[in-house]
């Protein structure tokens, strides 16, 4: 049984979707959780309440991941509440899809700022503490489209591919201090986002997936738990594809 | 009360595992004391804790030698 007893994890964008599932999963393994959110306070508090009801410890902390001051304050709050920061899961992300020909600068900037710069800011903010502790686990949520590209998502794809490169660099810079960094590249995971797609698009997506189904957020959370735990002690700089076999 | 130099020396000896006699004012962290760039970042972090002050990245980049660090800290404390 994987255990994270005594560890503290910050999960960004944890009020819903994959982030919320990761927060629940890490809490289930005994970690104390900082449920970060940007807008959805009620949902974040619901995740905290759920963790507490299960006997775990959690706090909700508002911070836009692209705002370095807010992120620093979040890490300070985590330290005050729990005394250490052992795990960072960079999950927060947004989409502003458009064909490249029609994509506006602010659609590009918003997605790069949250999905890529946000990972840089959060990683930088926890590194000081992790270096002192001589241990740490950084888990970045990328996307399979960051590996394969995707029409209509130039901004999102560029950010997610950037996260993979950032993960490798983080891994190299911090390995000597006992800190590992790995990424997960999920494929199509059943969330609010995929539920909105019409049936034809869903069918054509399914045709590309050897396992013949969409993934569940819990399957991503299981991989995140693995990467955040001692089970993954000899692994760093890697990207796990969780995509039902779409990209091999 | 230990002097700034004595306290800086102790931090350097603990962090870099060098002999106290090697920690001279003109000694450079990377050239003479065997620090890599990450060691220097950590050293600055520990000096911040030791002297309870914030050292900006720009200021930290200007610190190449033990003397640079001592002068900076003394000036900031004054």
UniProtKB/TrEMBL annotation, chain B:
<keyword id="KW-0276">Fatty acid metabolism</keyword>
<dbReference type="GO" id="GO:0005829">
    <property type="term" value="C:cytosol"/>
</dbReference>
<dbReference type="InterPro" id="IPR009081">
    <property type="entry name" value="PP-bd_ACP"/>
</dbReference>
<dbReference type="InterPro" id="IPR006162">
    <property type="entry name" value="Ppantetheine_attach_site"/>
</dbReference>
<dbReference type="InterPro" id="IPR003231">
    <property type="entry name" value="ACP"/>
</dbReference>
<protein>
    <recommendedName>
        <fullName>Acyl carrier protein</fullName>
    </recommendedName>
</protein>
<dbReference type="GO" id="GO:0000035">
    <property type="term" value="F:acyl binding"/>
</dbReference>
<keyword id="KW-0597">Phosphoprotein</keyword>
<dbReference type="GO" id="GO:0016020">
    <property type="term" value="C:membrane"/>
</dbReference>
<keyword id="KW-0275">Fatty acid biosynthesis</keyword>
<dbReference type="GO" id="GO:0000036">
    <property type="term" value="F:acyl carrier activity"/>
</dbReference>
<dbReference type="Pfam" id="PF00550">
    <property type="entry name" value="PP-binding"/>
</dbReference>
<comment type="similarity">
    <text>Belongs to the acyl carrier protein (ACP) family.</text>
</comment>
<keyword id="KW-0596">Phosphopantetheine</keyword>
<dbReference type="InterPro" id="IPR036736">
    <property type="entry name" value="ACP-like_sf"/>
</dbReference>
<keyword id="KW-0444">Lipid biosynthesis</keyword>
<dbReference type="GO" id="GO:0009245">
    <property type="term" value="P:lipid A biosynthetic process"/>
</dbReference>
<keyword id="KW-0443">Lipid metabolism</keyword>
<comment type="pathway">
    <text>Lipid metabolism; fatty acid biosynthesis.</text>
</comment>
<feature type="modified residue" description="O-(pantetheine 4'-phosphoryl)serine">
    <location>
        <position position="37"/>
    </location>
</feature>
<comment type="function">
    <text>Carrier of the growing fatty acid chain in fatty acid biosynthesis.</text>
</comment>
<keyword id="KW-0963">Cytoplasm</keyword>
């Amino acid at each position: 049984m994987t255990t994270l007893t005594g560890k503290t994890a910050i999960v960004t964008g944890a009020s819903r979707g994959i982030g919320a599932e990761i927060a629940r999963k890490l809490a289930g393994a005994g970690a104390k959780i900082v449920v970060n959110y940007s807008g959805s306070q009620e949902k974040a508090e619901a995740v905290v309440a759920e963790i507490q009801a299960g006997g775990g410890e959690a706090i909700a902390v508002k911070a836009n991941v692209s705002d370095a001051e807010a992120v620093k304050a979040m890490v300070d709050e985590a330290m005050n509440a729990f005394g250490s920061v052992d795990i960072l899961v960079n999950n927060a992300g947004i989409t502003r899809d458009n064909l490249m020909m029609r994509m506006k600068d602010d659609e590009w900037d918003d997605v790069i700022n949250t999905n890529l710069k946000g990972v840089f800011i959060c990683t930088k903010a926890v590194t000081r503490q992790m270096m002192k502790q001589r241990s740490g686990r950084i888990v970045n949520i990328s996307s399979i489209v960051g590996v394969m590209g995707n029409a209509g998502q130039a901004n999102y794809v560029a950010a997610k591919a950037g996260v993979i490169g950032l993960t490798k660099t983080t891994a190299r810079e911090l390995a000597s201090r006992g800190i590992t960094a790995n990424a997960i590249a999920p494929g199509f995971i059943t969330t609010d986002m995929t539920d909105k797609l019409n049936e034809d698009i869903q069918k054509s997506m399914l045709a590309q997936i050897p396992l013949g189904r969409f993934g569940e957020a819990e399957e991503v959370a299981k991989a995140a738990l693995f990467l955040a735990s001692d089970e993954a002690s000899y692994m760093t700089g890697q990207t796990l594809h969780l995509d039902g076999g779409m990209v091999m | 009360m230990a002097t700034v130099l004595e306290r800086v020396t102790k931090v350097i000896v603990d962090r870099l595992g060098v002999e106290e006699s090697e920690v001279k004012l003109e000694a450079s962290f990377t050239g003479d004391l065997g620090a890599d760039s990450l060691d220097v970042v950590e050293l600055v972090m520990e000096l911040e804790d030791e002297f309870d002050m914030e050292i900006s990245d720009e200021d930290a980049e200007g610190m190449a030698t033990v003397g640079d660090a001592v002068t900076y800290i003394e000036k900031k404390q004054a």
